[in-house]
Amino acid sequence: MVVISDIIVQGLQMLLVLLMAPLLTGFVRKIKARLLRRQGASMFQPYRDLLRLLRKEVVLADNASWLFRVTPYVTFAAIWVAAALVPTFATGLVFNWTADLIAIVALLGSARFFLALAGMDVGTSFGGIGSSREVMIAALAEPAMLLIVFCMALVAGSTQLSTVANFMASSYVGLRVSLGMAVIALIMVALAENARIPVDNPATHLELTMVHEAMVLEYSGRHLAMIEFGAFLKLLLYVSLIACVFFPFNIALFGTGALAYATGAAAYVVKLAVAGLLLALFETATAKMRVFRVPQFLGAALMLGLLGTLLLFVSRSF
Amino acid sequence: MMSAVALQMACVAGLLGLAILAIALSRSKIATAVIYTITLIICLAALAGSLRWLLGGPADATGLILPIGLPWLGAHFRMDALAAFFLVVVNLGGAAASLYGLGYGRHESSPHRVLPFFPAFLAGMNLVVLADDAFSYLLCWEFMSLASWALVMAHHREAGNARAGYIYLVMASFGTLALLLAFGLLAGPTGDYGFAAIRNTPHTPYVAALVLILMLIGAGSKAGLVPLHVWLPLAHPAAPSHVSALMSGVMTKVAIYGFIRVVFDLLGQPSWPASVIVLGLGSITAVMGILYAMMETDLKRLLAYSTIENVGIIFVSLGLALAFQANGQKLPAALAFTAALFHVLNHSFFKSLLFFGAGAVLTSTGERDMDKLGGLIHRMPLTSFVVLIGCVAISALPPFNGFVSEWLIFQAVLQSPELPQWALKIMVPAVGAMLALAAALAAACFVKVFGVTFLGRPRSPAAETAVEVDRISLAAMFILATLCLLAGILPGPVMDALSPVAVEILGGRLPVQAHVPWLSIVPVSESRGSYNGLLVMVFIAISASLAVYFIHRFASHALRRGPAWGCGFDDAVPAAQYSGGSFAQPIRRVFGTLLFHARDHVDMPAPGDTRPARLRIELHDLVWERLYQPVSGAVGFSADRLNALQFLTIRRYLSLVFATLVTLLLVLAIWS
Fold it and tell me: Which of A298, B46, B81, B88 meets the CB 3.0–4.6 Å disulfide criterion with B501?
C-alpha cells in the first residue's frame, strides 16, 4: 500500500514536471514581453508550439545519420529522468536514491553530450560553432557546480536531494553566508546551463550570437519539439533545484498526508511564478555578454562556490 | 592442484616460450593466427586463475621461489589480492588485444617485428605484478619496458617513430634508475631485497619521503604523470593499435601497481604531507592531460594524452586514500582506494576499446589525422557505434562505467571535511573542482573525437571509401563495450570484488554492496549518497520509449530529406566543416593562452587580392620547451666538453684513476 502511494507520488511528480515545464517558459516569455511594453503571446503558447511542431514534417539533411534522429529522444529522456528526481512539491520520492545531485548533473551532461554530437552530425559550420561553444560553457560550469554541491553537502551531510531538502526545511539551518554564496553561484550556473541571457540568448535569430540555438539549427518537426521540450524541462529542473534546496518552504515532507501535499503543490507553483518573474526581470535588465566574457562570469560562480565552502570550514555556523 | 601463483607462472612461461616460437615462425603465413590464438588462450587461463583468486573469498597469499636471479636471494613471486586484481586487468586487456590482433594483425606490414615481442610484453607485465623481491621486480620492469620499446619501434621507418622510441628509452631508463634508488633506500643498509623483509622493516620519515618522490618519478614516468609524460604521447601511438591499447590501457596500470605496492604496502603507515604531493600532481596531470588532448588532432595521440588525464584521476584518488589512511580513517580511505582501482579497471576497458576503434579507422582509411576523416558513421556503422559507447564511458556519463568511478571519487572528496589538517581541508575541494573540470573537458574532447571523425561529411577520399573492419576486431570491441556497460550498471559486484584488495592494503573496506537492495551502491551510508546505474538506465530506456511511442502514435510521420541549411550559401567543400582545431578554439582561447601560449595568426589578403586567407595556430608545449630542452641542451653541451676525455694518453688515464681512488678513499675516511 505504502509502495503504491509512493509510486503514485513519483508518477505524479513525473507528470507534473512534464505539464508545468512549457508553462514556466511561456510565463517567462509573457512577463518579458510585458516588461518591454509588448502584448506578448499567451502563456500557453509553448504548448501550441509543441503541438504545431509535432504535426509538421521533419526535414532531415541529406547526410544526417541515425545519431541525429535518436538524439532528440535520448536528450529528452535523460532530462526528464533528471527532472523527475529533483523534489518539487514533496521530498522522499520513492526512487530518489537512484541518483544523487552529482548523478543528476551528469545526466544533464549526457543530454548535452548527445546534443553537441548532433550539432556536428550534419557537417555545417553552425552546428560546429554551437557545439564547440556549448562544451566550453559546460566545461566552465561543471567545476562551479561541483563546489556548490560540496558546499551543500557540507551543510546537509548528503548529496541526496531529498535528504538535503528535508534538512534545509528543518528550522535550525537558518540564514548562512555560505549558503547565500552557493545560491548566487547556482543561479549563475543555471543561467549558463539553460542558455539564458547574459550567457546565451534563447530568442535570438542572428546565427553568430547563438550557442544553443545554433547547435540545434538543423532540427525540425517532431525532433525539434522533443529538443524544445527538453529545454523547457531543464529550466524547470534548475528552478526546482534552487527552490528545493535553498527555499524549501512548505515543501511536503515524506508521508505527511494529502493536505501537506496540496499545500506543497501550491507553494511550488508560487515558487515557480516568483522564479519566472525574477528571471524575466533579470533578462530584461541585462544585455548578453560576448562569448569570451563567459569564462569570467562562470569563474565568479566558481570563486563564490569555493568561498562558500571555505567559510564553512572556518565555522559551521556561517 | 596447482597453486595460484604456479598457474600464473606457468602462463608466463608459456608466453615466453611463445615469444621464442614466434621468432621461428614469424616469416610464415600462419604465424599471426597461431601466435594471437595462443596468447588469447593463455591470457584467458591467467585471467580465470586470477579472477578465481580474487572472487574466491579470503585466501592466503601464496609465494613461489625460483632458483634464478641473485644467488643468495632467488627470484620470489607471490600472489596476493592486489596482485590478483592487477593480473585481472593485465590479462583481460591482453586477451582483448590478442582477439583484436587476430583481425588487425592480418594487415600488419611487418609481423616479424611485432609477433615475438607481443607475448614477451604480456609476460613482462604479468611478471612485474607477481614479483616479490626488488631484484626480480626491477628485472621484470626492464623486461616489460624493453619489450614495449621493441613494439614501439616495430614501424621504425615511419616519420617520428625513431625519435619516439629514443625518447621512450631515455625516459624508461631514467624511471628505472629512480626505482633502483627507491628500492635501495627501502632495503636499507642490511640490503634485504625481499618485499616481505622490506615490509617488516620500519622506515624513517626521511626515507619514506625520499622513496615516495623516487616512486613518483619512477612509476610516475611510466604512468605518465605531468611533467614526466612527454614520451607517452609519442610512444603509445607509434606502436600497432592493439599494442597501443595495451600500453595505454594496461602498462600504465602496471606502473600504478608499482606505486601502490611500494607506497601503500611496503612503506607502511603513510604520513599526510605525502598525500598533498600526490593530490597536487594528480590533479595537475588530469587537467593538463585533457587540455593537451583537446589541442590534438591525431586520433591515437589524442587518446594517449587522454590516458595521461585518467592516470591523473587515479593518482588523485590514491592521494585521497593516502590522506585518509594517514589519519586512520579506514572507511573513507577504502572508498578512495576502491574508486582508484575501479577507475583502473574502467580505464583499461574504454581506453583499449577506443584504441581498437582508432586502429579500425586506421586500417580502413590509412588516416590517423581526424581533420582528414569524417562521416565514418555511414561507412563503418558498427565501429562507430562501439566507439560512441567508449566515448560516452570515458566522458564519465551515466549509465556507463566511467561515471561510477568518478562518482565514487567525488564521494571520497566529500568526506574530506573529516580530515584534521587544514592544508588538506582547503586543498581537497579545489582538487575536486579540478577533477570536475577534467571530467567536463573530457566530455568536450570526446565530442570532438566522435564528432570530427565519425560525424559530418568525409574530408578526404580515404574517408569517403572506408569500409567496415573484420568481424574479429569488431567482436573484441563489442566485448569491451559490453564490459563498459556492465560495470556501469552493476557497480556493486565490482566494488565487492575489489574489497579484498582494500582489506589487504588498508585494513578497512566498504560495506558489502551485495546486501543493498535494488543493486544500488551505497559507499558510506544511505543518507550520504547512493547511485543506481541499472535503474538510471532502465528509467532512461522507459522514458525514451514512452516518448518514442507517443510521438509515433500522435505526431506526424512525414520525413523529407533535403540539403542542409547553409544560410543561402551552399558550401560544397567538406573542408569548410568544423575541424578538430576549430572545435577546440573556444577552449584553446580560454585555457590555452596561458598554458600553451596559444596564438591565432590570421593572414588576411588585402581587398582585391585573390590569394586565400590563412589561419595559423601557434601552440607551445611549455613542459617540453622550459624543462626538457634546457636539460637536453645541458647534457649535449657537457657531452661535447667531456668528449675530450676520450682521446687521452694512457698515463693520463692512469693518473685519473689514481686521483679518483684517492678522492673516494678520502671521502670515506672523512665520512666515518
Answer: B81
